[in-house]
Amino acid sequence: MTNEQKAIKTTYFSIAGNTVMALIKGLAGIFGNSYALIADAIESTTDIFSSILVLIGLKYSSKPPDKNHPYGHGRIEPLITFLVVGFLITSATIIAYESIQNIGTPHELPEPFTLLILAAIIIWKEISYRLVMKKSAETKSTSLRADAWHHRSDAITSIAAFIGISIALYFGKGYESADDWAALFASGFILYNSYQIFRPALGEILDEHVYDDLVEEIRSISLRVEGVMATEKCFIRKAGMKHHVDLHAIVNGTISVQEGHAIAHRLKDTLREQLPELGHVLIHVEPSRN
Q1: CA-CA distance, 11 to 80, in Å (whole number)?
Q2: Which of 186, 245, 250, 264 is the most buried (most CB within 10 A)?
């Protein structure tokens, strides 16, 4: 199974999980008098749409290179990530606004059963976060990483709701707004996570160099290829789940152009064989000055 197929399969898991969570949280919040749970349901609903966007982006980015897109379609991934961040910011803003409105409005205490539901949700969302983040690391997908953080932020908002409801139930009348303060705190955490997701996606769009470990691995593999004496410049830029490489390889300056060409092809094939995450690899042959 390719990285693209793994990522797409993982996104289907996120969509199904978020749909179930949104329904459970919404019903529990309505019947359990908990705005923190309703706020949580709002976030899970936006998660469904953001996961669908991630799915669309992954399917598009997996299309092979063509005449108009010789480097493939991977750059759609960070653009989708920006849209996902927009969903997160929107949901955080709605939750914060409604929380502030509810803090000053008298309402009933939450029902105790909401704590049991929240405990189950917290465990499930943390498991989901770990599963999706693992697949993100395997596939090098930034949009899948954003999707994983949706699960983690969902777990955090549920923890905040759990604490708020517990305070309200323990102290009783007069502490009903603890539930709303919990939702307000959760909205702030969602905004913080939005920046954490946005920053690496922006770096990918701007071709920011953050691949020192991969550069070292490329250099190490290159020196084991027959005919390669050393390496000079090594530039890497990421597009979707692929890393495109420009590498300068130093060879014996007295060999023929044909021999140098053969070394370059051998180096390119070796790199792509040992590092499946590499996409387009351009080898520039430099003659040794010795």
Answers
A1: 13
A2: 186
Query: Which residue shows structure tokens 């799915």?
Result: 55
Backbone φ/ψ region at 227: left (φ over 0), alpha (ψ -120 to 50), beta = left
Total domains, the chain = 2
DSSP 176: T
The enclosing domain of 147 has a CATH number of 1.20.1510.10
Considering only CA atoms, which of 147, 133, 123 is closest in space to residue 12? 147
Tell me the average pLDDT of the chain. 83
* Residue 239: both structure tokens together: 């597009």
In the DSSP assignment, the letter for residue 32 is: T
Q: Which residues contact 76 (CB under 8 A, 6 or more apart)?
A: 57, 60, 61, 240
Domain co-membership, 82 together with 178: yes
What digits encode the pLDDT tens for the residues 128-176? 889 888 888 877 777 777 778 778 877 877 888 888 888 888 887 777 7
Residue type, 34: S
Q: Are residues 86 and 218 in the same domain?
A: no
**In which band, very low, low, confident or very high, does the pLDDT at 271 lie, cut at 50, 70 and 90?**
very high
Q: Please indicate, yes or no, whether residues 108 and 170 belong to a single structural domain of this protein.
A: yes
Most distant pair of Cα atoms in the chain: their distance: 88
pTM of the model: 0.67
For residues 147 and 136, give the distance between their C-alpha atoms in angstroms, rounded to a whole number: 9
How far is 144 from 268, CA to CA, in rounded Å?
28
- pLDDT at res. 174: 76
Based on the fold, state whether residues 146 and 217 are members of the same structural domain.
Answer: no
Phi, psi of 284 (to 5 degrees): -105, 120
Same-domain pairing of 138 and 248? no
- Give the containing element (helix H, strand E) for 137: helix 113-139
